[in-house]
Amino acid sequence: MNTSSTTSLDTETYDYIIVGGGTSGLVVANRLSEDASVRVLVLEAGADATKDPRIFIPGLAPSTYWNPDFDWAFTSTPQKQLGGRTIAHSMGKTLGGSSAINMGMIIWPGRVTFDSWKALGNPGWGWDESMVNYIKKFHTYNPPSAEVQKRVSYEADESAHGTSGPVQVNFGTDYMPYHEAWAPTFKAMGYPLTGDPVTGVSSGAFISGGAIDPVSKTRSHSAAVYFNDEIAKRPNLRVVTEAFVEKVLLKTEEDGSVTAKGVQVRTKDGVLREISTAKEVILAAGSFKSPQILELSGIGNPSLLQLHGIPVVIPNINVGENLQDHALIPFNWEVAEGASADIIAKDPSIMAAAMEAYQTAKAGPLGQNPLVSSFIPIDLSDAERNELVDTQVAAHPPETPAEAAQFEQLRHILDIPNEPTAQYTFAPMQLLSRLGPLPSQIFGMSHDGYFVTVVTALNHPFSRGSTHIASANPTDKPTIDIGYLRHPLDLELEARHLLLLEKIMAAEPMASLLKPRGRRIHNYDKTEPLADLEEAKKVARELVLSNWHTSGSCAMQPLEKGGVVSDKLLVYGTRNLRVVDASIFPLVPRGNIQASVFAVAEKCADVIKGEAGK
Ligand SMILES: Cc1cc2nc3c(=O)[nH]c(=O)nc-3n(C[C@H](O)[C@H](O)[C@H](O)COP(=O)(O)OP(=O)(O)OC[C@H]3O[C@@H](n4cnc5c(N)ncnc54)[C@H](O)[C@@H]3O)c2cc1C
Fold this sequence. Notes:
Helix content is 29%, strand content 16%. By secondary structure, the protein is an alpha/beta fold. Helix 3 runs antiparallel to helix 14 (401-414).
């Protein structure tokens, strides 16, 4: 398929112009163009790198990070609450977007978050109402074999999964002793798996699937499956890569409403073009770029727009606010003598053997997802947890209507007995926050010795950040105030979960796989576990990293409650400008969010189709 041609790009007519050919954008493009009478154009700033092994071999993902050919490579402003640290944020700049460069984990969201989206004023977005079906719709589940399930102590509930969706969810066969010890260790500590996580209510540890094709062992990302060779033949679907959209062209109508007439885009040949739409413009540029495009187009906080000389078309102070992420805090343990863990990434000959196995037999670690996960409640009684929540929220009450509405929902979620408050994820590698901020430093595996990592992430964070234009120049990166651990409740919960993790990793069978009195990088290479709450808070601030689950910056919420788009995804004040990417999540669902992004985009497509039929 040729996505680089610009021939007659500005003279053709399109019903829908989709900005961003990433995770959500290609889902929506695929579904809208199922109707042969509907003409769809996708404009993607990155190139088509789908044939590049760094994209299609799942295990090579980190080689794309901070590489300008694949990654927007954003950096946050210095974070006061983190001692002035800056945080690096990768985001896919390539056909397929972040799904083409991500870690590939498929983790199922919780039902409580979608139900709270509904309660926030989004009818139709609840779990039972629709989202459970869209989760099934986007994927095909390829369960691990019975032998593997037994080995890793996992029982798949196939009936709850998708059977014919585009994204392939697959498991591996080459699990390490750590993977096998993962679920039994949590069980021994009183956290048995209570059901298949796809049900949206379970807790406990489990082996997680990856977005990987079970036959070719290639990455099952949005460009590979929603825009495959077959779909690309549709005459009514056109995808143009290396096409950088600078702004949406807006017209204020006589009745005061605003119509999106098209977009201004600079194509690969350097030409600045205006492309018209017959019906709608749909933003799918991701949680940093969609709000930036809105602001560049004149939709946003009037004082910010005026500061940068941008005429205000629709004033809305909520654009770019409400930024959320689960954040992650990596802890690293030295492994037992003779055990292999991060060795694949450290020893070139082992990496070469892994590549050989992949290329010759589609075998070995590069074609399977090595990360496994768990959802665990805080180890406090209901009364203790309620008191902690009450005290901390009273100390840092909501500051905006959006926060007021959201905190009410979050408190309701935290009231649910045994609701998992954190996700622990195991990774057979080093994650070295203190060497950061750059991914090459964090993923550099440069610590002497061999280690495994478990990262801790909060499922329902209260901290909020923001992202805004830094100037009127579309090519300038947006400013990102990420806000990790800014809310004191997040710090309290994180610190307790970190201490709990130390206890879990000291339990059998995991304990025997770690070096007796081995070093802990998180505890400054000491051999003792971290055991003090205040010390855990200090370490949390030092180690917290992006979990790449940024969302919420164009929140789907009523306008008076701090929203940017309606439950029909329409940007408030416009007739035909929508947003469909992770930025619309009013509250971030638990777990790694690509499953939620795919499911939400599937629903967005139906919402748009339904609206078009009216
Ligand atoms: C490094 C990394 C690892 C991750 N690991 C996991 C994981 O293991 N599991 C998981 O579930 N989730 C993971 N995630 C999160 C998940 O991949 C993202 O949340 C999700 O893919 C975001 O989808 P999106 O549609 O919102 O944005 P994207 O998929 O990022 O799509 C946005 C697209 O818009 C394009 N674009 C932006 N601006 C413009 C413009 N001006 N003009 C034209 N095009 C533009 C971008 O180039 C991009 O292709 C990870 C993310 C990253 C970055």
